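Lab notebook, page 48
Experiment: co-folding of the full assembly
Goal: obtain a model of how the components sit together before planning crosslinking
Operator: M.T.
Materials (sequences as entered):
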Amino acid sequence: MNMQLTLASRYLLGRKLRTALTVLAIAFGVLLIYGLNSIMPSFQQAFQANAMALASQVDASITNRAGAAFPAATLARVTAIDGVRTAIGTLERSLGLPADFFDHDPATPDRVAAVTLMGGEPAALRSMATYPLEEGRFLEAGDADAVVITRSLAEAAGVGLGDTLRLPTTGGLAALTVVGLLPQRLLPGNEEALVTLGEAQRLLDLPGQINVIEVNFDSAEKARRDQIEANIRAALGPGFTIGVLQAGAELLNSIEMGQQMMNLLGILGLLMGGFIILNTFRTVVAERRRDIGLLRAVGASRRTVTGLILVESLLLGALGSVIGLALGFGLARLVTSALAPMYGQFLNLQIPLPGFMPGLALAAVGAGVGVTVLASLLPARAASRVTPLEALRPAIGPASLRKLTGVGFWSGVLMLALAVAALLTRSATWLSLGSLLFVLGLLLVSPALVTPIAALFGRLAALLFARDGTAQLAEGNLERQPSRAALTASTTMIGLAILVMSAGMISSISITFQRMLRTSLGSDYLLVPPAVATWGLSVGANPALAEELRAVDGVQVVSTLRFAGSQVGDLPISVLGIDPPAYEQTSGLTFDQGDPAAAYAQINAGRSVIVNGLLASGAGLKLGGTVNLLTATGETPYTVVGIGGDYLNAKLPTAYISQANIAADFGRREDVFYQINLKQGADPAAAEAAFKRLLQPYPQFKLVAGQAYIDQNLALFDAMFAGLYAMLIFLAIPSLIAMVNTLAIGVIERRREIGMLRAVGATRRQVRRVIVVEALILAAIGVAFGLLAGLYLGYMAVVALSAYGFSMDYAFPGSAIVVAIAAGLLFGVIAALIPARQAAGLPIVSALRFE
Amino acid sequence: MPIVETQNLSKIYGAGEVAVTALDHVSISVEAGEFVAIMGPSGCGKSTLLHLLGGLDSVSDGSVLIDGQNLAGMKDDDLTRLRRRKIGFIFQFFNLIPVLTAQENVALPITLDGVKPAEARARAAEWLTRLDMAERMHHRPDQLSGGQQQRVAIARALVADPDLILADEPTGNLDTRAGDEIAETLRQVSQQWGRAVVMVTHDPRIAAYADRIIFLKDGKVNDQTILAPRRNGDAATAAAPLQAPA
Amino acid sequence: MSVRNAFLGLLAQKPRHGYELRAAFEAIAGGGVNWDVKPAQVYATLDRLAEAGLVVCTSDLGEGDEPGRRVYALTEAGLAALRQWFDEGVEPEHQRDEFYIKLMVALASGAGDPHRILRTQRGLIYQRLHGLTTQRNALDARVALAQVLLLDKAIMHLEADLRWLEFVEARLGDIQRQPLPAPQVRARGRPKKGS
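Observation: model returned without errors.
Model output:
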């Protein structure tokens, strides 16, 4: 073992560049996996901090499963339950604040992004927790317009004892007098504003309603507590849930999706790394046949030789993983600190910097090392089969074509056929399997195809360099060792395939979303809350505002969205209330299935629902089927009358129902989003002035012109795609650099031949050209395969996304193909430059002597 | 008892019409401490014979006995262990591991056999000193001349105290002077340290260092010449009847 | 011829007695074992050289004609003769070879097995080569380079002989198929006895 370690580390140090590149490949995969996964918990932490702060000193929090408010009388039923010592009912609501709410400066986001309005009976509140006042007094029963806040909130809002604190509510701005100041808040989470229960019910427009019951039990014993919880469940029925409040579940869901995509990228990165390692070790074994043969001759067993290669890969894997881990940790912090202000601004959430996560680190390192060792397993086995005789025999004969078109080739062909067949199934599972098969199949068939393709491109190159025989020589070199050539070309192939695939996917996503964007947000004006899509965090407005807007001179139609959180089974979903005739006029859904006109009509007629693709695939819904939505009163069946969605909610499973139904089943009458169209020939300036005046009590809404909003979103798209492209190029580069490595090895192995070329009169230029042409042919092969694979995979990804519920149009990535061809050939030439210089620089005599 | 002995050893490459007989019923034996050169025109099977003696290649017919053990039919692991302990190899191209120092290269076979690294290094140093390479112990192969590299290879062949040293054209890649030095060292290996040395060479000058020369032709033993009588009075080998010429 | 010229050279170094001259010659020629010169031959040679005026006898002791006591020195003419020797090349002699004759005779007569003759010769040469290399490697080239060089010459010639033997062995069949060199038949004279 010790000897293997010595040998492995020496060999690795002996080829620093190659070692560095291989390590980079692994590090990249680990970086993505660790970095991206450690971001998620930060977000979760932010949400849970909210919830935990709420549930601080109580044994249980009882809420409606749909998050809806319920009659205050429910409290009496809980108090009567055996084992409940005390119970209080509160009405709580997180009020998302616009970034310029307190300081009126949109450039610098306020420190406080959201305030939780908490209404409770003063005596009851004090029975649950202690409120050590620094100044003033606590709430008293019957207090009107009085609020108790922390010192930190007071400072952020710039108010003091006796001053007026303004908060946005559905009925417009509320003005509350600060009667007491609590010490600075210690726990993470939202700042709280304490008011009496009656005040809260008034401000939130929920008379006689509460939404949380906090309970203290009469025992600390586990069995007894479980019993009490069971009692509560039995008393309240399935519509209620006991436990920590799940705030922002729909946002977490969306983040999770992004994380999964990134994880896919990370796994792709690791697979790439694995492939590069396979490539590296195959060349390593080929390069060291003589050394290995010698080891066998002096008494190393097959196991020892296998071990040697494995130890080497273990070292590489460990090194790469540790570096990847360190970079991933940095990336997570970087991304979080870059996103935090954005989230602070749009979603009113404070995101903590992610800490080090040992479990995840272990998993990421495990994956990194695992992939490395796995990838080196085949070459290690090949190494163990090297006979001691190879120490004595320098030459290895060329592979015969019969061997090349053997089992591997035909199983590759079969795999390709299966992969294409998988496209027809349109099932996500088969598609992902198909993509794997496709890449594997390409790798398997490529050695046999190298000869004809090299001949083709060789002829092309011969036309370019017609005057000397360099092209023929280069072509001959490739055809002599087709396996090696295929291996080198396949590194390019993988890199370009990823590029073309992503380009196909991204351009498809892009055009689809743009189409949706124009449909969904086609109105003249929008009123946008601070948190778009994660509607639960925003404070909307009473129906009165919509009426006032409709009354403005020149307004043709106003359409609003109403929101409620819900669940289908265990899947958290958004329920949006729409008002079809108006909604259709201002925006509208993009339908995959069902007739739009009929669907809108049915929605207004009864308990009918239009679901978006994500929900349809997530819950397995069919047109004409039934879905049980969790409402304030329990599960309620709805008929699916259409499958389609809008741009804003595309990332989340969403159900669209009528506003009448959302009021009846979810108790929501609050508008969270407005779209306004003006009459033909109306005066925009006058209308805008009128809107602004009406919105003064509603600072939570921002007035945006429709076109401006679309442009803003498109710019966001572009920025996102640019980032994605940068990442992909990062992913593609190591594979392209691996080509340099393989080419360089080719040069080293052919030193004697190159010396001979020079001796018989080839100029340095010509020698250089042989190598460059060889690389160009290789790159051309790689590009050809890469385009093929990339186009297939891109199309496959689009089909697969459709299967997941994102129905999309396939866009042919024409420009990306041009870029890929140029990049592939350019990298081919760049990859050849170093080895070509090296080859041309060889002194003739020493090159001839080299054995 | 001879250290290595072959009985009607044959090696045939390929099968059917394209079969090539590389060795044809060769019977030789080498005693402890004897220095034997194997000569013959290229393609006569001399390298094949050496490979078979070292268990590097499989026997087609007949047997190879190393210290009484028949190599034919041995499992790879057993063969590997036998090579480790009984046989030392010296190659034309030295075949040192480029990333290891001279000392580490020499220590390799016994490290592979489980000797503790410190002890292995000490034994390697001892042999390198005996071969006049003490000062170059920590050099890598590329910092050594051809002759020096071959000395390191000899030390490596000797470090496990094998009974048999097999050398395949050990001077083939060296100039005359370095070649003479290596040949003289091999003579020392047999005379002073009592190992049997079997050396394949095509260079008459190098072959003349041996105690006995076996001439191969077309896969058969064509002639033997005794250059120096057996020192330990074991006349059996010296007096062994020559095989009839082809 | 070479002994005569060697004497001239050794006398050019310094005047010497006859026995001194003989010892110096033998030392240079690789020892008495290698090249033995009889005292009588020494004095005969010196006498001939004196007659030709190439050396003079300077009997400084004046004690009569005892040969061992006479001291010889080089004359101007002697020096010129020495220079002339230096200026000329030495004819190499390899074509009168006993083994070759033996082999041809064996082939011609059919009385000996040419393979066996070859093998015997090869064995002999290898034994000599073995002896010479042993002898040469026992010398320290740093102090006895002259001897080493002489041994090297012999070794290299033996190597050449061995290569030649290999060559002959490889082509023995061809030689046997060809007519051997035979004397040309003269027009006049007695007819041959055999057919």
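Interpretation: Residues 1-35+251-396 of chain A form one domain.
Next step: discuss with group before ordering constructs.
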